[in-house]
Design goal:
With 184 residues, this protein is α+β, with helices and mostly antiparallel strands. The protein has a single domain, classed as Gcn5-related N-acetyltransferase (GNAT) (Aminopeptidase), CATH 3.40.630. The protein is built from six helices and seven strands, in the order βαααββαβαβαββ. A hairpin with a 2-residue loop joins β2 and β3. The radius of gyration is 16 Å and the shape is globular.
Length: 184
């Protein structure tokens, strides 16, 4: 089974709304799911008015998840939250992710999706130095997926949580751009 990527587009918003309404997604994404809210929050990136990128993860062509990707430097408030917890080098990127349908969870797809997007980040952004991902400590499934995808825990500390019911304590995971093999 092959994972490929396609940029999110407005015709995908009804699917995204359904995913955001799923209990396993809603618990961690804490997002309004009205058509207006999805258009408001995802429309600017789709239209290129915001520097973040939203991708559908496709498994053999079937949409199964979403990954958001951004340069941390493009979001100063996010950078201000993260910088007291870990060193944020120039060129650092971040991702957020979800698997939309509960039936696709627990199959090892999360780590594959994460690793695939990290690999794509290296090719899409030659100046990207690392990918940093903060995760609420209570979201064990998410941080275990990051570990299985090859990211390592590099810090922990208080960061404003996406869901106000969560404790601010986060783990921060990192993967650095692979260095080229020396030519002998």
């Amino acid at each position: 089974m092959t994972i490929t990527w396609r940029r999110l587009d407005e015709p995908d918003f009804p699917l995204l709304r359904r995913w955001l309404e799923q209990p396993h997604v809603a618990r961690w994404w804490n997002h309004e799911t009205s058509a207006e809210a999805v258009l408001r929050d995802f429309g600017p990136a789709v239209r290129g008015e915001e520097p973040s990128e939203d991708f559908l993860a496709l498994l053999d062509g079937l949409p199964i998840g979403l990954v958001q990707r951004c340069r941390l430097a493009d979001y100063p408030e996010y950078l201000d939250d993260l910088s007291p917890v870990v060193d944020v080098p120039s060129g650092a990127m971040s991702i957020d992710y979800l698997i939309g349908d509960q039936a696709w969870t627990g199959r090892g797809l999360g780590p594959r999706i994460i690793a695939s997007m990290v690999a794509r980040t290296w090719s899409d952004y030659p100046d990207a130095t690392c990918v940093l991902v903060p995760v609420v400590t209570a979201n064990r499934t998410s941080w275990r997926a990051l570990e299985k995808a090859g990211l390592r825990r590099v810090g922990e500390g208080d960061i404003t949580p996406d869901n106000p019911i969560d404790d601010p304590l986060h783990y921060v995971y990192r993967v650095d751009r692979p260095q080229p093999e020396p030519v002998l």
